[in-house]
């Protein structure tokens, strides 16, 4: 990995120490160029014209789906472009037919986006079982946790591949197998996994995988819902998702078109395509290895500071480059503000859209969270550690 070249492609990475990648990553110039090229040279709608501009845009839009699908080993299923994981999970919640007595299993470690759509189904008599880690509150969910909770009424298990607070990586392959052994479906929220290590839906065996473009160098307002079978009822109806319409009814299209009613975010799709190509050119294995070095350095540095508590799995367990911590005597927002104001370090603070987890861990104010990506350096990690140490010494 040529980190210097990557940073050349991302000017903002040289202006601040950007460590809020679990929320939104920065975009390299090739991603921006791909969107500008569309807007400048062949701006047209897709699937709605035979003129040259529409044909070029349509072909590239189709190729964007193919590129993303190959990235996750998803050729056996259907990739649908959405705005983000939130929209994707809502599509599943509203697209499946749930009946009173059906059960959904999710976890206290999950993002609000993988909780609220299921909570809403309680109004239909659906049971939502939010389970907690039995082994270690900070170590994430295990397959045994799922196995102990699943019942004959379980219709769906919905779980994050990696926690955006703890950084823990969950055993989604084993969990998908447990779900299928009980005739249940499995949805995996890959928002924090797909951008950071090789994720293959064939290996996982899940029925649904969602991820967001803005966390993997792509534009905001882009994301993917991958489906093993396109059996969901469409969330939206209208132009672009039909094969035929009469005064008596309509016939929906097949494939991803069935779920993409209306004019899509075409420029965003081309940006997402460019982001995937950028990641592929570097190699997900190289990215994972680079982030692992940075994560170990950060954990080692913070653990040596008295008054700092790291929130996450114990040493030796698989994790991503998400490191949450608290500083004794300071609100997380105070720490984040000082890091920004005095050190130009950008981190996130608060609940990270995981209020149930914060309540479970007895962290009413949340945490400070540093989240890493391919353009971060060891020097930046050292600056963060030194900054936190100076903040603690000044309390």
Characterization of this structure:
- With 395 residues, the protein is α/β, with parallel strands linked by helices.
- It folds into two domains: 3-24 and 283-394, Alpha-Beta Complex (Aspartate Aminotransferase, domain 1), CATH 3.90.1150.10; 30-281, 3-Layer(aba) Sandwich (Aspartate Aminotransferase, domain 2).
- 37% of the residues lie in helices and 17% in strands.
- It is built from 13 helices and 15 strands.
- A hairpin with a 4-residue loop joins strand 9 (242-245) and strand 10.
- Helix 2 (29-41) runs antiparallel to helix 9, helix 3 packs across helix 9 and helix 10 runs parallel beside helix 13.
- The longest helix is centred in the first third of the chain and has 20 residues, at 52-71.
- Its cofactor is pyridoxal 5'-phosphate.
- Keywords: Pyridoxal phosphate, Transferase.
- Its EC number is 2.8.1.7.
Compact overview of the structure:
Helices cover 37% and strands 17% of the residues. The chain has 395 residues and is α/β, with parallel strands linked by helices.
What would you say the CATH architecture of the largest domain is? Answer: 3-Layer(aba) Sandwich
Mean pLDDT: 96
- β-strand percent reads 15-25%
Count of β-strands: 15
The CATH topology label of the largest domain is: Aspartate Aminotransferase, domain 2
| SSE order | HEHHEHEHEHEHEHEEEEHHEEHEEHEH
Query: Which blocks of ≥5 consecutive residues have pLDDT under 50?
Result: none
Counting DSSP H or I runs of 4 or more residues, the number of helices is 13
Structural class by secondary-structure content: alpha/beta
Distance between the termini: 39 Å
Describe the main β-sheet briefly.
7 strands, mixed
The CATH superfamily name of the largest domain is: Type I PLP-dependent aspartate aminotransferase-like (Major domain)
Form type: globular
- CATH top level class name of the largest domain: Alpha Beta
How many domains?
A: 2
Read across the widest sheet, the strand sequence of neighbours is: 2-8-7-6-5-3-4
InterPro entries: Aminotrans_V_dom, Aminotrans_V_PyrdxlP_BS, Cys_dSase_SufS, PyrdxlP-dep_Trfase, PyrdxlP-dep_Trfase_major, PyrdxlP-dep_Trfase_small
GO molecular function, one term: cysteine desulfurase activity
Family: Belongs to the class-V pyridoxal-phosphate-dependent aminotransferase family. Csd subfamily.
Catalytic activity: (sulfur carrier)-H + L-cysteine = (sulfur carrier)-SH + L-alanine
């Amino acid at each position: 990995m040529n980190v210097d070249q990557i940073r050349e492609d991302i000017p903002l990475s040289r202006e601040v120490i950007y460590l809020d990648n679990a929320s939104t990553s920065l975009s390299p110039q090739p991603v921006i160029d791909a969107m500008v090229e569309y807007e400048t040279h062949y701006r047209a709608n897709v699937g709605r014209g035979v003129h040259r501009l529409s044909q070029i845009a349509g072909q590239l839009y189709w190729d964007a789906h193919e590129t993303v699908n190959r990235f996750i080993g998803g050729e056996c299923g259907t990739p649908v472009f959405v705005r983000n994981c939130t929209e994707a999970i809502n599509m599943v919640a509203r697209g499946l037919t749930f009946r009173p007595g059906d059960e959904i299993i999710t976890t206290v470690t999950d993002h609000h986006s993988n909780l609220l759509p299921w909570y809403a189904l309680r109004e239909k008599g659906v049971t939502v079982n939010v389970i907690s880690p039995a082994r270690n509150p900070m170590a994430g969910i295990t397959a045994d946790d799922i196995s102990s909770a699943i019942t004959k009424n379980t219709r769906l298990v919905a779980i994050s591949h990696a926690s955006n607070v703890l950084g823990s990586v969950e055993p989604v392959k084993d969990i998908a197998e447990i779900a299928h052994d009980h005739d249940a479906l499995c949805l995996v929220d890959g928002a924090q996994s797909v951008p950071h290590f090789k994720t293959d839906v064939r290996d996982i065996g899940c029925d649904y995988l969602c991820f967001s473009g803005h966390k993997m160098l792509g534009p905001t307002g882009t994301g993917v819902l991958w489906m093993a079978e396109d059996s969901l009822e469409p969330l939206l109806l209208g132009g672009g998702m039909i094969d035929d319409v009469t005064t008596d009814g309509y016939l929906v299209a097949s494939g991803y078109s069935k779920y993409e009613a209306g004019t899509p975010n075409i420029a965003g799709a081309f940006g997402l395509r460019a982001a995937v190509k950028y990641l592929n050119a570097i190699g997900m294995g190289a990215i994972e290895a680079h982030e692992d070095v940075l994560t170990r350095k950060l954990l080692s540095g913070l653990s040596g500071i008295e008054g700092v508590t790291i929130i996450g799995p114990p040493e030796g367990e698989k994790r991503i480059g998400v490191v949450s911590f608290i500083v004794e005597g300071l609100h997380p927002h105070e720490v984040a503000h000082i890091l920004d104001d005095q050190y130009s370090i950008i981190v996130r603070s608060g609940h990270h859209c995981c209020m149930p987890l914060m309540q479970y861990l007895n962290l009413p104010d949340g945490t400070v969270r540093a989240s890493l990506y391919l353009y971060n350096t060891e020097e930046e990690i050292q600056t963060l550690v030194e900054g936190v140490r100076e903040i603690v010494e000044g309390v």
